[in-house]
Amino acid sequence: MSTRRHTDSEEEPATPTSAPPPNKRCNMEENGSEAFIFDEPKLSEKCGPTMRRFREKQVRNISFAIPEGYNYDKLEYLGGGTYGNVIKTTFKRENGKEQTVAIKKLREPFHDPQQARKIYREIELLQLMRHDNIICALDVYSPNNFENFKDIYIVTEYAGQSLFRVLKHQRDRSVQILKADHVKFITYQLIRALKYIHSANVIHRDLKPGNLALTDDCDLTVLDFGLARTLENADTTLTTYVQTRWYRSPEVIYWKFGSYSNSADMWSVGCIAAELLTGEPLFPGDDANLQYQRITQLCGSPSEDLLNKIERDNSAAMRQVIQSYKQHKRQDFKEYFKEHRPSEDLIDFLEKILVLDPERRLSVEEAIAHPYLAEFSLPDDEPSAGRHFDLNDGIMRTGSEWKKIIWEQIKNFQRLETSPKVPQD
Ligand SMILES: Nc1ncnc2c1ncn2[C@@H]1O[C@H](COP(=O)(O)OP(=O)(O)OP(=O)(O)O)[C@@H](O)[C@H]1O
């Protein structure tokens, strides 16, 4: 049984209370956040794409529409990012069991066609992805009618504390919550999820601790597909804003490299695994230049071979710019990380992922077979998607076209057995 406490979200730690394996479990205490208790608000008339009733609730001055059937008494604020605000609540499943969920209210979903397309992708992927370590949508709704369609809510299973908060708590309190076995188990689950994601021909593009959640048992879930795209998509103008910079690969920040490939996600895995080991972000550059310096100080400046590839895929001018930066030799990883006493396997794993040339970086298939993860790896239980996901979102569409498409997407949302039932009269 987990020991859940409910206190302020900034203060509360997630603390593993027991050693992880042999059964691949690591107890983590998980916190709640602020609880908001209100007078009972009225149920609306039936409205929205699926004709449901809602109650309006304020959380941190943000108005949330809570569908009939959900618990609206106690809403906890989980956080807000670029694309929305998230609260936690529950609903009763058909079997009477309480399901804890995260409800994300998207911020200005129809601000522009690009934003609308991101939302479309996210809702599609949240229905297509079916994997233990990947979040899936239980419900999607809007309380608006088509004429004033502006608010979209996505409901996912509550997946636990964000890894960002666990790491922040470690730093703030100077405690070590994540021990070597936790680091390995978290990394394994991340790679297991990525194997599925890449096999579907999807790149996540925004892997970072804030997009990973951990349960009390140290089960990891990849959240948030807002920036993901398929490799087949014609939209190949890949801008550098796509990922939080600290976890972004050098080929994404500094030079275009062939087409943007899923090895960029592997770079993020390397940064996350190193941060799990040390407790500190690996390349926390305040700007793109400082970021580049930090990367090359550890991983070395581009080799002649890589420079040739950069020139081939970009221009001679780009090569010159890169050569004009201060040149660094690759450091000895064993020496660099020695105070954290990593295993030889972990050092080898990091060495093979934190490689500037994406063509030489470990692929997800190679990573899952690496000796570092052998303790957890069960090849028969590491599913692939079995097909490429085609999002059919490469066509340029206007804002109002996206509005119609997303309205239909919500109307036709594929409910799961664990989804809340829409009350019928
Ligand atoms: N299903 C979920 N289970 C648990 N926590 C969640 C879930 N979905 C979102 N969260 C948490 O809610 C918070 C806000 O999420 P959101 O995706 O809006 O922002 P973010 O990922 O922090 O930032 P950004 O979107 O700018 O990258 C995060 O701390 C995230 O971990």
Automatic annotation (TrEMBL):
Where is each Protein kinase domain found?
A: 72-373
**Which reactions appear under catalytic activity for this entry?**
L-seryl-[protein] + ATP = O-phospho-L-seryl-[protein] + ADP + H(+); L-threonyl-[protein] + ATP = O-phospho-L-threonyl-[protein] + ADP + H(+)
Keyword Nucleotide-binding listed: yes
Q: Name one GO molecular function term.
A: ATP binding
* Designated name of the protein: mitogen-activated protein kinase
Name its species.
Answer: Caenorhabditis angaria
Could you tell me which residues belong to the region Disordered?
A: 1-29
Assigned keywords, A-Z: ATP-binding, Kinase, Nucleotide-binding, Phosphoprotein, Serine/threonine-protein kinase, Transferase
Q: What is its EC number?
A: 2.7.11.24
